[in-house]
Write a structure and sequence with these properties.
Chain lengths: 157, 166
């Protein structure tokens, strides 16, 4: 199983949708200029529209590369203001190493135009129906598996 | 122990500005048009709308849908800002369903139709990069239909109307 890291970014009304995407771009590019940053910024409006639909609240923006996989979620409303559940610190690895790709979660009603608009800008950044979890279920099962109480073993100890 | 978040005026501006753009995107998509042009300008539009709501100069955001051959208006959606912000109001919502009902009622636009976003401001507005002055297309022979409030954040809100041919 590949390594997975998550970041949780404070969105509206703490910061607007464009600024939310800018934070994600900064984390992914580690503040460096270059082709990846240019490509990510070229889809700012599309990503902002997806963030405005609150798709990344429960369904991750998934980033894959030759290294660890990264998932981004967004916080909204009171959770965004309070910020206690946010995690916006720098990633300790290169999240766009080698062949990278990004999958944006998207409401079904917007999927057709979002996919069309992304295709015109990038071959690496795509959109999927937000109900499609893209490896999140497996990761969450794996994570929760580590915390499951083994009653039999506990009683025998 | 329970806690209630207190929103600042700036946070209400963020909420309302983002949801105005989201509403325009829904109007365009449900009218059968492509939102790609709108999202291509998302950052500039958001910057202007946010700046002018923050400074309280923004009166209305208008989405003109027009025939690119004749330049005549087909329909127009107006989102008027109401500045009755109150820190103690404690309510916020965006009525997407009401908006969707009225967009469907207004009907699909011809696929070749174009659109643009226009903001009207009171005197003394600050300049914002990416925006320039323009005139509005005529609404002669059209009547205005009101949807009432569609966006609300602690009293800072937006009332939506659209124009249809008689």
């Amino acid at each position: 199983m590949s390594t997975v890291a998550s970041r949780v970014v404070r969105s509206s009304p703490h910061r607007n949708t464009s600024d939310t995407w800018a934070v994600i771009v900064n984390l992914l590019t580690q503040g460096k200029d270059g082709d990846a940053r240019t490509e990510l910024l070229s889809v700012s409006g599309i990503a902002s529209a997806v963030i405005a639909e609150r798709a990344p609240k429960d369904s991750a923006i998934v980033v894959t590369c030759d290294g660890p996989r990264t998932r981004f979620y967004c916080l909204y409303d009171e959770a965004a203001i309070e910020g206690g559940d946010s995690k916006e610190d720098d990633l300790g690895y290169e999240p766009l190493k080698g062949q990278w790709a990004i999958s944006l979660p998207c409401p079904e009603d917007d999927l057709a135009w979002v996919q069309r608009a992304l295709k015109a800008k990038s071959s690496r950044i795509t959109a999927r129906d937000m109900t499609q979890k893209l490896g999140e279920e497996e990761a969450s099962k794996a994570a929760s598996g580590g915390l499951t109480l083994n009653v039999d073993k506990f009683l025998k100890s | 122990m329970s806690a209630v978040a207190v929103y600042s005026y700036t946070q209400s501006v963020v909420y309302v500005a983002d949801n105005i753009l989201k509403s325009l995107k829904d109007i365009i998509r449900l009218s059968g048009l492509d939102p790609a042009k709108l999202v291509g300008d998302w950052e500039v539009l958001l910057r202007g709308i946010s700046t002018w709501i923050e400074s309280k100069h923004l009166e209305t955001v208008k989405l003109e849908i027009y025939d690119p051959k004749t330049d005549a208006l087909i329909t127009r959606w107006d989102v008027a800002i109401s500045y009755t912000w109150d820190i103690s109001a404690g309510v916020f919502w965006t009525d997407t369903e009401q908006l969707k009902y009225h967009i469907r009622k207004a009907g699909l636009m011809p696929s070749e139709a174009s659109y643009r976003v226009v903001a009207t401001n009171s005197n003394g507005r600050p300049d914002v990069d990416g925006w320039s002055s323009c005139g509005l297309r005529s609404t002669d022979g059209m009547v205005q239909q009101s949807l009432g409030a569609t966006i609300q954040h602690n009293g800072l809100g937006a009332n939506t109307t659209y124009w249809r041919k008689l």
